[in-house]
Amino acid sequence: MNRIYSYIFVMAAVTYLVRMLPLTLIRKEIKSDFVKSFLYYVPYATLAAMTFPAILYASNDMRASIAGFAVALVLSFRKKSLLTVASCACIAVFFVELFIA
Asked: Could you tell me the pTM of the whole model?
């Protein structure tokens, strides 16, 4: 049981340090346009890197996952709402799994 508490403590310390160190080490304003633009896109790139593999393995058949992803991509480029995109992607996966798998 002591090992669990030590794991929790290490995870808490690492999480705290990752959030606290930039605030204490970088006190002045960032003036580099490159660094500003890099930091602006980091959350989007991280979210995409975490989400994309989950999309491909969300269903039992990768063809259904790719079809749902394609539907979501097309609808999102057409500026549809999040609810519309998610619903249509789920429906596409359902029908592809129903007829192909």
From this structure: 0.63
